[in-house]
Design a protein that fits this description.
Shape: globular
Helix content: 40-55%
Oligomer: single chain
Structural class: alpha/beta
Strand order of the largest sheet: 1-2-4-3-5-6
Number of helices: 17
């Protein structure tokens, strides 16, 4: 990875999302507003109404104008806005869902990434529990990211554009939740995309390119999170690049002479319309030669990857219903289709149910054996937060090679939130502290890491709910809870090249040390040893989960950043407890 530093017009990296949302609302005060306590739900002023299905789109920032740019009448009613390249959290999503709930249900639309799936699934569960019917579509239009027989593993890229437009128009017409979901899935089934990257992008927090690429190279089949593509090749001329993308798309769509498609030529952030129109020229000529007509075309930036140079091509095969919905009027910051819109109608705000409080714990019944008191445990967690902050850039560098380069940033955001939450934790038990950490991590992070570690901390809390202090047995149980919590939420297995490859051997070796009569420190040191071995093991295996899975054999030789951060956490925990006891 090079030492090149990038330039951005920002203030403090920690404030970019709030400031960007504020700027957007000030730019469109007659169209958009922010609702909810999180400040992450951008809502159409004239969109939601009674007896209308609420359309909520969402995902990480850095893809502007996606996602909030699609909020407006006849399109999305709200967008849940996550951190850069990170899914919104369930709280962000629920703020959006409550804001658009008109009594007819809510349809969530988002890209098919692990973090988005985890967080939106949790939001669907919460909606159903609070009486809001909810459905979701994980959009997977990227033909380069998995073969057709594993289509459900594909990423969502610029094809979101077509699904958002069609589902939004259907909801505007008054179709019910099942019908809106059905037509959204129909649009997805007829949409395919593929892209190419010419340069890397850089996260605001790191200011460094996510990966190195030569001046004469391009990444074929990249995603929209700055992750490397499926393969690297020499830079070609525009027509040759267009042909490669289009040939891959057409081979799967199996279009026939006389068919009609709509076209999106999308810039990734640093490729201007001068180049994009050259790509569209080639697309149009190729389709004409094949006897395929273009119903509508869009050329510009609709789903970007920060300042990445490159482009993607999306096609949607048209039928009469899709033509009608694609042509239906809408008005949003990034997309306007001219035509009359019916009067807005009334929207009645609906009260949300209060979140249940925690149950008081009778301390007189808790096991007090063990040197790790709640105070020592809390201090150990603060030491973990400090270790993650210190190693943030290293973790992001690891992730930049095989992922989107944000793991260190994401972990730092989560542990910074934990640090803030523990500042006023008061006289709490270790179970209370663990549950507080879970809430803080989930609300701050989103992404895949948020739900995974929130589930981990909750499961760990349950493991030690009968204890005030932790001895060797209690500490091993807490570490085991971390592992089982991640497994229960994420579904990864040993050997998938994820964080679980560090946690599973950490638990196994800690349990072995405990059975052999090891004391607290012996068990913690065994856990560290197991995590390190698991971390190092990930460098030699191919990824089978998450974004790095798309790289196939290219992921071999690189350590998994999640496993690396797991080891860091255990080492910091061990060192802090050693010093305190």
């Amino acid at each position: 990875m090079s030492d090149i530093r990038t330039k951005k017009l920002i203030n403090e990296p920690e404030g970019i999302i709030a400031e960007a949302i504020e700027g957007m609302i000030l730019a469109y005060p007659d169209r958009l507003r922010v609702e909810g306590a999180t400040g992450r739900a951008v809502v159409a002023i004239n969109g939601p109404r009674d007896d209308k299905v609420g359309i909520v789109v969402g995902g990480g920032s850095g893809h502007e104008p996606m996602f909030a740019g699609y909020v407006g009448r006849g399109l999305a009613d709200a967008a849940a806005v996550g951190n850069v390249f990170a899914s919104p959290s369930p709280d962000h999503i629920m703020d959006a869902a409550r804001a658009v709930d008109g009594g007819a249900g809510v349809l969530f639309l988002y890209g098919n990434y692990t973090g988005d799936v985890l967080n939106f699934d949790m939001a669907v569960e919460e909606c159903e529990a609070s009486g809001i019917p909810a459905r979701s579509i994980a959009i997977h239009d990227d033909v380069a990211s998995a073969p057709a027989d594993r289509m459900q593993e594909r990423r969502g890229v610029a094809g979101n554009f077509f699904v958002f437009k069609v589902a939004g128009a259907a909801a505007e017409q008054g179709r019910n939740l099942e019908a809106c979901e059905a037509i959204g899935r129909h649009a997805l089934a007829n949409t395919r995309s593929m892209g190419v990257a010419l340069t890397a992008c850089s996260l605001p927090q790191t200011g460094k390119p996510n990966f190195d690429i030569g001046h004469d190279e391009m990444e074929i089949g990249m995603g929209v999170h700055g992750e490397p593509g499926m393969r690297r090749g020499k830079l070609k001329k525009a027509d040759a690049v267009t042909d490669e993308l289009l040939d891959t798309i057409l081979a799967e769509m199996q279009l026939e002479r006389g068919d009609s498609v709509s076209v999106l030529v999308n810039g990734l952030g640093a490729t201007g319309q001068l180049e994009l129109f050259i790509l569209h020229r080639r697309v149009a000529k190729r389709l004409e030669e094949l006897g395929i007509s273009i119903y509508r075309s869009w050329v510009g930036e609709y789903a970007t990857s920060l300042e990445m140079a490159g482009a993607s091509i999306s096609l949607m095969k048209m039928d009469d219903e899709l033509k009608s919905l694609l042509s239906a009027p809408c008005q949003a910051p990034c997309l306007t289709v001219a035509g009359p819109l019916a009067p807005q109608g009334k929207h009645t705000p609906r009260a949300s149910e209060a979140v249940a409080g925690s149950t008081a714990i009778d301390r007189s019944k808790l096991i007090t054996k063990g040197p790790v008191t709640p105070v020592i445990f809390r201090d150990a967690m603060l030491s973990v937060a400090a270790a993650i902050a210190e190693n943030r850039d290293w973790l992001s560098k690891l992730d930049g090679v095989i992922g989107d380069g944000d793991h260190g940033v994401t972990m730092d955001i989560g542990w910074t939130a934990v640090k803030q939450a523990l500042a006023d934790s008061g006289d709490e038990t270790i179970t209370d502290i663990s549950n507080r950490m879970a809430r803080a991590f989930l609300n701050a992070v989103g992404a895949s890491t948020g739900p995974l570690y929130a589930s981990a901390f909750k499961a760990a809390a349950v493991k030690v709910e009968d204890r005030l202090n932790l001895d060797a047995t209690g500490m091993v149980a807490w570490i085991e809870g971390i592992s089982t919590g991640i497994l229960s939420r994420g579904g990864a297995a040993a050997g998938d090249k994820t964080m679980i490859d560090a946690w599973i051997p950490a638990v196994a070796q800690a349990q072995t040390a405990l059975r052999n009569g090891g004391d607290l420190m012996a068990c913690l040191e065994a856990a560290c040893k197991g995590a390190k071995e698991g971390r190092d093991y990930t460098a030699g295996i191919e990824s089978k989960r998450g974004r790095s899975k798309k790289l196939g054999a290219r992921s071999i030789g690189h350590m998994d950043p999640g496993a690396a951060s797991a080891h860091l956490m255990l080492v910091a925990l061990t060192q802090s407890i050693r010093q305190a006891t």
